[in-house]
């Protein structure tokens, strides 16, 4: 695979597949943080050590002959310009943090973009696996498989008492972050989300926006993940998170039904106004676009609007981000120029209706 194949399409192939509760649960992700026992951690900032890790990865895991992992493509960050890096961040294939050590960082990507292994991020390895819908257990199984494959050629930093050793103390133990991305427009509209988030936090989970820590929950999209990595097994963490998410899904479904029954005309008006805005705007900022796309998706899920695929909406959520807009323009754009191009792309994609 080439870099172009990863940055030219806004929607990853795995996102086109079906999954449990996919109308509400957009994705499941498991991320494992691992470090090599005999090498300085990336947070040390030692360039020689960072380069050493890169060379170790290239020597041991990037092979010409067929292997079980021959579909992984090695992409050094130093070969990418800033816009290309932003595109990979917007597709959740790399983290913003990986760009900080871009001269000595890389990512291994699978053909379906379901697997992403970041090299020299905060830890030597950040293994990420995605699945559509609520499929955390499947994601964990695949992450285990990749973890075992990587460990065949390396000794991990591991302590019998503390577990896997990581750059940040909050990841020590399992080194695992399991997260679910949810679309919760009805809970936002009914304001139930305001009481649910504090309750979720008290259960040892954290609620963030679409791009993780420090990001805003635009488009009514929330990311829920575990905070505790020490003292519980990976399976228990996943089980607890899935249990909470199942309850959230049930609350969202009930809220959607309540809104539809109690305020059908108002809901339809919100959906069709958003549809009209998206189809006709000549300039639209990212926040308004995300809100309108969320409303339109809710209308599709409830059967208010037909003949539009939810995949187009998934695509638009990424396609309208700054990195993608500038990538397709093939140049850097001012904020107002991005707003104009965003409106144009949305109009073009909605006219396809497929």
From TrEMBL:
Gene Ontology cellular-component annotations: extracellular space
Regulation: Appears to be allosterically activated by the binding of pArg-containing polypeptides to the pArg-binding pocket localized in the C-terminal domain of McsB.
Protein EC: 2.7.14.1
Keywords of the record: Allosteric enzyme, ATP-binding, Kinase, Nucleotide-binding, Transferase
CDD domains xref list: bacterial_phosphagen_kinase
Catalytic activity, as annotated: L-arginyl-[protein] + ATP = N(omega)-phospho-L-arginyl-[protein] + ADP + H(+)
Highest taxon in the source lineage: Bacteria
Classification via InterPro entries: Arg_Kinase, ATP-guanido_PTrfase, ATP-guanido_PTrfase_AS, ATP-guanido_PTrfase_cat, Gln_synth/guanido_kin_cat_dom
Domain Phosphagen kinase C-terminal residues, every copy: 24-255
Entry annotated with the keyword Transferase: yes
GO BP terms: phosphocreatine biosynthetic process
Motif (RDXXRA motif of the pArg binding pocket involved in allosteric regulation): 338-343
GO MF, one example: ATP binding
Pfam families assigned: ATP-gua_Ptrans (PF00217)
Residues annotated for ATP binding in this entry: 27-31, 92, 126, 177-181, 208-213
Enzyme class of the recorded protein, top EC level: transferase
NCBIfam families: PRK01059.1-4, PRK01059.1-5
Family as reported in the entry's similarity comment: Belongs to the ATP:guanido phosphotransferase family.
Reported function: Catalyzes the specific phosphorylation of arginine residues in a large number of proteins. Is part of the bacterial stress response system. Protein arginine phosphorylation has a physiologically important role and is involved in the regulation of many critical cellular processes, such as protein homeostasis, motility, competence, and stringent and stress responses, by regulating gene expression and protein activity.
Protein name: Protein-arginine kinase
Protein's organism: Oceanobacillus oncorhynchi
């Amino acid at each position: 695979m080439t870099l172009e194949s990863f940055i030219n399409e806004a929607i990853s192939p795995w996102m086109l597949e079906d999954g449990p509760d996919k109308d509400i649960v957009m994705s499941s992700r498991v991320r494992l943080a691992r470090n090599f026992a005999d090498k300085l951690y990336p947070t040390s900032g030692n360039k020689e050590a960072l380069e050493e890790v890169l060379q170790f990865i290239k020597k041991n895991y990037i092979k010409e002959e067929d292997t079980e992992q021959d579909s992984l493509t090695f992409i050094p960050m130093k070969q990418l310009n800033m816009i290309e890096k932003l595109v990979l961040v917007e597709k959740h294939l790399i983290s913003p943090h990986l760009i900080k050590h871009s001269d000595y960082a890389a990512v291994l990507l699978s053909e379906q973009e379901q697997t992403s292994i970041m090299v020299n991020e905060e830890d030597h390895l950040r293994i990420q696996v995605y699945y559509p819908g609520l499929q955390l257990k499947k994601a964990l199984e695949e992450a285990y498989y990749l973890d075992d494959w990587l460990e065949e050629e390396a000794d991990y930093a591991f302590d019998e008492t503390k577990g896997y050793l990581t750059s940040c103390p909050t990841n020590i133990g399992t080194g695992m972050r399991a997260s679910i991305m949810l679309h919760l427009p009805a809970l936002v509209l009914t304001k139930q989300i305001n009481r649910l988030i504090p309750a979720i936090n008290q259960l040892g989970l954290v609620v963030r926006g679409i791009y993780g820590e420090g990001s805003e929950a635009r488009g009514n999209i929330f990311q829920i993940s575990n905070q505790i990595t020490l003292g519980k097994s990976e399976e228990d963490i996943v089980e607890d998170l899935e249990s909470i998410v199942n309850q959230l899904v049930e609350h969202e479904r009930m809220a959607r039904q309540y809104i539809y029954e109690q305020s059908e005309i108002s809901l339809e008006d919100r959906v069709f106004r958003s549809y009209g805005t998206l189809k006709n705007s000549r300039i639209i900022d990212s926040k308004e676009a995300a809100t309108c796309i969320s409303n339109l998706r809710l209308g599709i899920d409830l059967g208010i609007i037909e003949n539009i695929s939810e995949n187009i909406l998934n695509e638009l959520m990424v396609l309208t981000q700054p990195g993608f807009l500038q990538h397709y323009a093939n140049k850097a754009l001012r904020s107002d120029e991005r707003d104009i191009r965003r409106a144009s792309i949305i109009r073009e994609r909605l006219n396809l209706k497929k």
